[in-house]
Each structure stands twice: as structure tokens, then as C-alpha cells.
Amino acid sequence: MKLKLNQWLLLASGVVLLFVVGLALKSAGLFSVFSNGPESATSLSVVVLLGLALIVVLMIALAIVYSVLDLTVKSEALGLPEGSVRALIAFSLVTIFVLMAAFLYRNVSDLGPGTTITRIPKAQIDELKKDFVVVAVPATKADGSPDLDTDGKTPLYQVKYFVRHNKDTDDFAKQIFTTLATVFVSVISFYFGSSASISGAGAVAKAMASGTKKNPPSITQLDPDHIAIGSGDTPLKITGDGLSTVTNVKVGNSDLKPNKVTEKLVEVTVPSSVLTKKNSLKVSLVSDTGESQSMDLSIE
After folding, report:
1. Model-level pTM?
2. Contact 300, 228 (CB under 8 A)
3. DSSP helix/strand/coil, 81
4. In order of start, what are the domains of the chain with their CATH numbers?
5. 146 and 177 Cβ atoms separated by less than 8 Å
6. What is the pLDDT of residues 59-73, one digit of tens each?
7. Under 8 Å between Cβ of 227 and 270
């Protein structure tokens, strides 16, 4: 399918829009959601909301593209193929799950920025260890010799300490992640389960429709099966099966209305206009369920 100029422009505009939105998010510093700090939680909320809004906008843009290309499905939501809205819900939840999982893992596993203190004795390190996670290394002078306190005997240390994680906060993060994962699995299961159910229902409906479909009428005998040339209007009896729905009788190129229709018999009058020359005419029956096989009517 060849796209027109305005369709190419529409597609190009969508690509440019995505690029501009990405630059806007980056310039606004919203990707700092994966850094530590009080602003990261706020950034996460903004990124999630913008992500969901962007998914909806892209779905609307896709619906517009389908409309321009005349590919809309009028019986479905947004004119998109069946299951598109369920896919939108599932994809939105995937976005939330990925962002929340990365955020929680980052904040639980990372100690964050530390504070450095130089030239402190071991007694102060022991005090810090009560409330902080402490990393200490012996302090050294410029010449590489150990750095000692003013008494010339007590070694000094260079320390970097981090805020210790709150156990209750870590437990809360685990509960949030577990709940989110449960909701994620449930919605994804609903999405695929609904698709499977609809496909199965369609297959059953198709099978039932094919099972109740009636066969076209069938012809077993013509009476008479030959007519003399130049005869006047001649009655023709056609016997067979399933003839109760017959609406027309084809005799050669003529389409005739039957005089009488029953389950086993159809009576029709063959006009003299088709009996003027030696010929073999095809006779068949037409009904709502289709057209029967044909039999030869000889004109001699």
C-alpha cells in the first residue's frame, strides 16, 4: 500500500513528537528518578503519569493513522483492531511495574551518598557504627607513613559513613513490590485469558454456524427429460431433495419462477421461446442455500 504525502507527514510528525517529548523529559531532569534523594520519589510520580499519558496519546495517534489509511474497525473501540484497549491497559501496567521495580531496587540496594571525615580515632568510629554504616581506612601522611594523633601513639583513620537503612522502610518496599507484582500478573493473565476466550468463542460460533448451514437443493430427475422442437409452453416436473426453499429455476439462459414448490418436487412451465431449435439446456434450481447441480434437458 502506497502512502500519500499527508500520510507520510503524519507519520513523520509522530516520530518528531516522540523525540521532542524525550528531550523535554531529559531537560526537566525527570530521569533523576533513579538517583537517590528526596526529589526522586516526586520524579517517579511525574514519570509514571507522563508515561501513561504518552501511551494514551500514542494510541490516539495510532487511531488517527488507521483512520487516514482507512483501516479502522468501526465495531471496536478507537477503531483499532480487537484487543487494542486490553493491550493498552496491560502495557500501561508494564510501564508502572518496570519503573517501580527499578526505583525500589535502587533505593533498597544503594546506600546513597556518604559523608567523609578525616583524621578521627577509633573511639569515634565505634560511636558512628551505632547509627551508621561505616567504612574506615587508616589515615596516612604525604610520605605514606601512618598518621597519628597529637600524642604520637593513637592511629587516626579516614572514614566514610552512610545512613543505615530503616528495616521498616525496606519491609514496606518489599510489600509494595509484591503487591504490584501480583496485580501485574493478574492483569496480564486477564489480557491473555480474554484474548483466548474471545478466540474460542469465535471458533465455537463459527463451528455452530457451519453445523447449522443447510445444503443447496439437489436434482434427481426431470420429467420430461426431452421436449420436441417447436412445442408450446411445456410443464416440467423436477424431483429431488431439499427443494422447499427453491425460488427460481434456470433453464438455459432463462430464469423462471416455479409454479409449485414442495420438499421433493418443483413444477415450472418452460416457455415456447426456448424450444425453437435443437439444443441441450442446463436445468438447475436456485434457493437461499445455494444453487443445485444441473441436469440436461434435450430439445429434439
Report:
1. 0.38
2. yes
3. coil
4. 5-110+169-209 (no CATH), 115-164 (no CATH), 218-299 (2.60.40.10)
5. no
6. 777 778 777 777 777
7. yes
